[in-house]
From TrEMBL:
GO terms for cellular component: exocyst. PANTHER family: EXOCYST COMPLEX COMPONENT 3 (PTHR21292:SF1), EXOCYST COMPLEX COMPONENT SEC6-RELATED (PTHR21292). This is Exocyst complex component Sec6. InterPro entries: EXOC3/Sec6. One of its GO terms (biological process) is exocytosis. Pfam families: Sec6. It comes from Volvox reticuliferus.
Length: 613
């Protein structure tokens, strides 16, 4: 109502102002001539006023609408604020109740946390076998995952062990514990498979030796696994976790080297025991002739046969002769075949493995492992066992050539050890742990057998030489000296024996025994000449016998000259032997006395007045 009155007053005031304005504009008569302009100006101003008024009204309407919106929003926020205040009142009331029950609430929160933890652990326990299987699958997919798989399995096995201990402490029934153990046994099974792969496939002899050459990274991973387990074992000992088993991978590995070497040499040891036992079968006829080939018809009758008779092949195709031939198998010992298998395909291969350990394997292990020394010491003992058994088995039946092959292998083996940096004190073969302490080492037995045969052979040879000299006639040399060829032949054969050992590159025990035997043979040669020169009576009062005949003056002179020549050649022989022997053996031979023995023989020659008619 008030607004309507104000509006009417404003209208009236506006009319009055309009009248006043018209009167002002039309004060003079001439102002009527401008009435049209005034009217136009009025209309223009009227339109401008209406436009301004319309804009003001529109602006006022918009302001009013905005104010209404603000009022609406304010109303909604007031309602929300009232609801929040009501909720605050309710929460305050609830908080007041919680303050009175905080002990129960704390207990409930703890229980809730424990339940969540138990549920999480149960989920982990239930998932343990599947995680272990995934570890194994990861390892099978790529063995480069060896270390990650081991780390995961260690965590899984530890969790499984803790679960079983916790279940046992909770006083559950034995049946429940048995079921849990059976369920978690899959984790232990995967760990056992991992350890089998580690120790039987990768770290067993000789696998890890060849692995170091073919896949050194994998071998390094295996060593890392052992080192990690060593750290775990040390930590378990430190915290005194007796319930956790210590796996001791490093000790297992070292023990496996010894056991693996024994198993590795087992076949060679059995083979060495079969020396001089039949190892092949040949076909022979009833006359012990070796049958090279035979052809039979469908009835089994011989139609063609080739055999060795007097070291020559003989072809038999005559039906009558073939009917009289019987062919059967004869087992025999082939020494060459035996030594090929024992030495070339056995001991030499083991020696090559030692070189591989030095060149490749040792670099994959920490220096503290001393892997080369461990493998060397283990192999060294096994080599000694095999050679000891071989020496005792082959001493009597093995040929001289076979004994030389064995000694050649021993010498090459020791040279290999020296080249690998092994001390000379450790190079020689140790006593066999399986041998009788009272018996001689097999290598010594074999060596004694060899030098014994050499002495026997040389004795037979010089007896034949002397017999041939006595039955022949001495011949003058270029300077007119009478002599026979026996002295030269004798020392040529002695030098051959030394050259054989020299070819073995042996300057130690074998060369020493050979040289000592050669000196014994020289003494025997001198003694035999003394007996010949002394004659049948042995008193030295008459001429000796030359092949059953009295010794001629020429022969006696030739014998004297021969011994002077033997003295000169013995000095050369002594120098050669001393040069071949190592320093440790040079002073153990009484070479000078033996050499002077030839001069003593020459002096002891009986005087012969003349040649027999």
């Amino acid at each position: 109502m008030t607004e309507a009155i104000d509006l009417a007053e404003q209208v009236l005031s506006a009319k009055e102002q309009g009248v006043i304005e018209i009167l002002r504009l039309l004060q003079h008569p001439e102002d009527l001539s401008r009435l049209a302009d005034i009217t136009a100006e009025y209309e223009s101003r009227h339109r401008a006023a209406r436009t301004t008024l319309s804009a003001m009204v529109q602006s006022q309407v918009e302001s009013t609408r905005l104010g209404m919106d603000l009022l609406e929003r304010a109303h909604r926020h007031i309602l929300k604020l009232q609801a929040a205040l009501e909720r605050i009142d309710r929460l305050c009331a609830e908080c007041s109740d919680l303050v009175h029950h905080h002990v129960k609430i704390k207990l409930l929160a703890t229980t809730h946390g424990n339940v969540k933890k138990v549920l999480s652990e149960i989920e982990d326990i239930v998932d343990l076998p599947y995680r272990a299987d995934r570890c194994w699958e990861m390892l099978e997919a790529d063995e480069a995952n060896l270390v990650p798989a081991f780390e995961a399995l260690v965590l899984l096995t530890g969790t499984a062990e803790n679960a079983k201990l916790a279940w046992q402490r909770s006083n559950k029934s034995a049946a429940d514990l048995s079921e849990l153990s059976a369920y978690l046994a899959r984790v232990d099974d995967v760990m056992r498979r991992f350890e089998k792969l580690l120790f039987e496939a990768h770290l067993a002899l000789p696998h890890f030796i060849y692995l170091s050459q073919e896949r050194p990274t994998l071998l390094v991973d295996c060593v890392r696994v052992m080192e990690l387990q060593e750290l775990l074992d040390a930590e378990y000992r430190r915290v005194k976790m007796g319930a956790v088993p210590q796996r001791r991978y490093k000790d297992l590995f070292f023990a496996s080297i010894t056991a693996g070497a024994e198993e590795r040499f087992k076949d060679l040891l059995e083979l060495a025991r079969t020396c001089n036992q039949p190892n092949t079968v040949v076909r022979i006829d009833q006359d012990a002739n070796v049958v090279v080939s035979e052809v039979r018809d469908y009835l089994g009758n011989l139609t063609r046969l080739v055999r060795i008779v007097n070291r020559q092949e003989e072809l038999v195709d005559d039906p009558e002769e073939l009917r009289g031939i019987e062919v059967f198998d004869e087992p025999l010992f082939d020494e060459s075949l035996f030594l090929d298998e024992l030495l070339d395909r056995g001991l030499y291969e083991m020696t090559d493995e030692l070189a591989m350990v030095y060149d490749y394997t040792a670099a994959c292990f920490p220096p503290s492992y001393g892997i080369f020394n461990r493998v060397f010491q283990t192999y060294h003992v096994q080599f000694a066992v095999v050679i000891d058994v071989l020496g005792h088995s082959a001493a009597e039946g093995m040929s001289t050539q076979g004994a030389l092959r064995v000694m050649d292998w021993v010498q090459k083996y020791m040279d290999t050890l020296r080249n690998l940096g092994v001390d000379d004190d450790l190079v020689r073969l140790p006593p066999s742990p399986l041998a009788d302490p009272e018996s001689m080492p097999g290598m010594v037995v074999l060596m004694d057998s060899y030098v014994g045969r050499m002495a026997k052979t040389m004795t037979e040879w010089y007896n034949r030489i002397l017999d041939a000299d006595l039955r022949g006639n001495p011949k003058p040399t270029a300077d007119g000296t009478l002599c026979t060829l026996g002295a030269i032949d004798f020392f040529r054969m002695l030098s051959q024996q030394v050259s054989i050992i020299e070819a073995l590159n042996d300057h130690g025990e074998v060369m020493f025994q050979t040289a000592r035997t050669a000196l014994d043979v020289m003494r025997g040669f001198q003694e035999t000449q003394r007996e010949i020169l002394a004659g049948p009576g042995g008193g030295g009062g008459g001429a000796g016998l030359a092949g059953g005949r009295p010794m001629s003056l020429e022969m006696a002179v030739a014998f004297i000259n021969n011994n002077v020549t033997c003295y000169d050649q013995s000095l050369q022989f002594a120098d050669d032997v001393q040069r071949q022997l190592s320093k440790a053996y040079r002073d153990q031979l009484n070479i000078e006395d033996v050499c002077r023995g030839f001069l003593e023989v020459a002096k002891a020659a009986p005087p012969v007045p003349s040649s027999p008619p």
